[in-house]
Design brief:
The complex is a heterodimer of chains A (1082) and B (138). Chain A is 28% helix and 14% strand. By secondary structure, chain A is of the alpha/beta class. Chain B has one domain. Chain B contains four helices and no strands. Classes of the chains: A alpha/beta (1082), B mainly alpha (138).
Chain lengths: 1082, 138
Amino acid sequence: MSKVKTNIKKALVTVSALLLGFGVTASSIMNDNFETITAFFGQQSFKVEQGELPEGYDLEHGYKSQFKSVKELVANGFKVQEEEQKEGTVLLKNDNALPLKKGSKVSVFGVTSAAPFYGASGSGGINTTEAIGWYDAFAGKYHDETHLKNTDMAQGDVLLEVNPELKDEYTAWSKNNAYKASSSTTNVKIGDVPWDVVQAGEGYAQIPTYGEAGIFIIKRTGGEGYDLPATSGKNAQYGNENYAKPSVNDGVDGDYLQLSASEISVLEGLKAMKAEGKIKKIVLILNMASTIQLDFLKNDTYDIDACLWTGSVGEVGTVAVAKLLTGEYNFSAGAASTLWANHLMNPINNNFTDQNYFFTYENYADFGFINPAEDNQYQSTMSTYMVYQEGMYMGYKYTETRYEDYVMGTKNVGEYDYDATVAYPFGYGLSYTNFEFSAPTVQKVGQKYEVSVEVTNTGKVAGKTPVQIYIAKPYAEYAKENQIQVPSVELIDFGKTSELAAGAKETVTVEVQEKYFTSYDAFGAGTYVIMPGDYYLIPAMNAHEATNHLLAAKGYTKANTNGKMDADGNAAMAHRITYSALDKETYSLSETTGNPIRNIFTFADINTYEGRGTNSVEYYSRENWNAIKMSERKEDGTLVKYYAELTMTQTMANELRDQMDASKVIKKGGEYPTYGAQNGLVVVDMKGVAYENLLWDQLLDQMTWDEQVDLLSNGRHRTQAVESIAKPSTGDENGPNGLSQTYSTKGGGSRFSGPTNPYGERVNDPDIKRSGDPRDKVTYTTTGFSSNGVLAATFNREIAAKVGKQIGEEGYWAGMSGLLGGGFNILRSPYAGRTAEYYSEDAMLTGLIGAPETAAIESMGVHCFVKHCALNESETGRHGVQTWVTEQALRENYLRAFELVFEDGGAYNVMTTFSRFGTIAGANSTALGKDWLRGEIGMPGIVETDCAGDMTDGKHGEAYVSRIVNVYTGATDLNEYNYGADDPDYTGGTYTFKHFAPVEAGGTGEYGNMGQAMREACKRIIYATVNSNAICGYSSSTKVIRVTPPWQDMMNKALMGATVFFGLSVAFCVIDGLVGLARKKK
Amino acid sequence: MTQSKQVSRKKTPGFLLTLLLIVLSVVTAGMYVIQYGNYAGMMSWPAVALLAAGAVVAILLILIKRSAWAYAPLAIGASVALLMYIEAVYGYVMVVLIGIDLNEVSQQFIICTALFVATFVLSLINIFVTQEKEVEAK
């Protein structure tokens, strides 16, 4: 009995102690993540009290939806996405195979036929619940206003009758681990079913019956956090370090962007069946945002009759593709990036960190930095780098320029085989009809050129076509003297015809800005210049055609170049404009701010960086095409990259450490601003008030120190509410391919972001999800769009604006006032992980398509955090990788895309790159944040970064961003992460905001300048908020009151209960012990 | 008839478990230091100190022939150390499990977590296992 009693006492104390211990720990962790948890439970840390409204007060503040209900909005999303896919699907090859007759009996191959690539992983992820698969699309199913769910799809005419047994088999195979595709950092599998397995199946015998065509659908995935591997397993080679965990994949030579053995076997099988007459045509569908090596298509290895690139198809893109295949729609897209015949011939890939590669300074350890190979979580931060050695010559700017120099016989051009390099050039795309362009007429109007082209549909069916306008700038004396690199042709703008009936004509006029005649002259004028010489404006159907027109204008023909030219151009298509003198004034000032444009990124070019030591790099130039030796693949599949080798210098090491060291950056001095004044203003009062207006000072004076710390510390998909000025919180969500949200009320369900402000709730739409709704309630979600390469391939601003308007409306209805997108980085390499998020290899196309999309999103009060500005082209080495690039290439090939979406698209906010400009992290760079984004481009809103929160908790994720230092310098206003009030500036950091506080807030009162910097950062956040849809539902009389959310209230009570339980348990044991002792004494 | 108690230090399961836990506490602390000692972001030195202190106090109690109470410092050390370990590494867990980077949980993390959990669970069991063997006085 005594033993039992003892055990009961032990159990009581143990259980109560554990409850208390775990309770205290949980409480500590949960309080650290207060805002994240509050958002997770769909709760609020504040409440909103609406006061009296003046009569007729517009609580929507001018925002007006064109939709009457969520259902109407969802239906329109499907419509817009189908249109995007219709105009963005690229027909690469068609030997009279397409269109297929509607209702044709076909056999469909490939596990992708049953498991389409709808969208990417990571921030480019999309909703796919209602996505329509290939089989359903071929069967004529679709969504309309009354059929929004996959459980109840609308049924149209059957477009293609699919071999049913083969379909069932592939449906089963697509779930079989042996065949299905997968992706991770250790195993990226292409998969698919070998032909002998297909032959053994029951569907094989039916192929002749369904032999109008064999349609083979293949995919490659991709996403945030990892690049695509060009090597596999033991064949991988890892720069100058051995990477701990090389991934494996089943592509030929271990190359994910080649065919797999299974895919080859299917193509060979189909070829054989075609030869036997069992199938009539072979159609290949490339369901991938990236592009595989297409030598087999160009060389006709497998007798493929037709091939189309669809990108990732979004929710209903399959429906558009099915209609394109059967001729209900016509193709009208042009490839947004070069399709390579051989990726080894792409000079970028030498200096690109695909999944199994990164480049480290050989001597990083001398400076105390860790070996990135020790950690497969975050490989970079301090010791890795990447050189953009290609300079200006990326994608078609390389292939076409070297081709031109080869044709012209320029010295040092080396051996160059265009056909072996390029499968299909930038801008290329076929149609079911043909078009002819007239010679352009060009007229200068102010600082624009109006380029008019008469387009004639010379084919037999209706169709539309892009009219791409290329510019050729002079590569002459001035350029050579000042190291200005000049690609042969560059896309400068574009237009698109309307739907032209067979035989119809239309004059397309494209307004070309003279400012894009400029080149960035880093070594001469230190600004944009128009060089003296001949310029050509060339309308063309693709970049290669433009180059041939240019060569023709220069007098070259196939005949007089011994066949070096692969086709004769038309000199009349190249309109010449001559500038007789150097102009270094006209475009040396910012259009938006009037500030001078000058060199601000020389520290990012290893050749001009002051701390370079003995390092130097020979970038690609037209003077020496042999500067980069192409990658080689050994017989065992090992890829040898001849990358630019650098060593770390002491200056580099010091800068890497010092840029985030508050003790070295933040200086004492200055006057603190006013805190806690009672001026009676609220944020809504500032709607329409200019940023420079002194009224802002009165508003900001009302904020307390603690409120400013809170606002600057909580940016995880949100900005924080502020009680003293009645600032609403904002919900800011991913991402570049759509919002990926469910329509719900503020408390309608768990979500990643902070509190939302849904229009759907304000109009009490019956179809939005509410708190407490049953699990089986029918819910509606935002649209999942195609990969952005598809949008770019449309060459259609109207489609871009429609997509943008839909995203803006969806944000408005779902309560989001921020979109973490679009993805305006450049598809520098086909091996880039985020291929679905990025638009093109070309910055002009990216920006010209991104601008109308962005403007339309912004029109609904949804601010775009355009990302990741800039040089965020690789994923494997993204965490702090030191990127070295010339200022000309940086500005013309990378920043240009962002420039366009800010200046022409009106984007408000930015998310900085994970990478560094030279040694300086993008998030820490005042050159980027202050000088370029605000000073040159005139960005009005928030500079945010998500790299700090994402990397500081990794095992070896050496922090490289200090949120507190960055607020002080003005480089970054906000981290996309939630921090507690007393959290340090980064993991392992020792400074908190309190260290810099005024005396009344518990600090030393010595850092007034820090106080001013914090106030300025707060102002930018509030300025963005008041000019967004976050203020909808708010008026001058609306109050924002901080409250304890229910989860925290419950947790506090539970903790109190655990404390009491523990106390009582201990008391019981003590009293019982004392009573026992007393009894013994008696 | 009177009875007296005598401790059988080598034969009770509790005593053997105590010895095992002393070793396990030291191994857990050592492994944690080896794996994460150079990384402040996931290191809790108080956790290491508590595990070591628990083991040291338990050894002292055995030396002064009070091994019946050795379970207590071991259990306190293991429990509080586990809590501190959780607080130190939860950020990493969040990044890996709900983070956007496609990665796996590292081997080091699995080893350390397994050791901490094993030490904790065994120390709880040890509380309820017989620590003294009662024998009749001769």
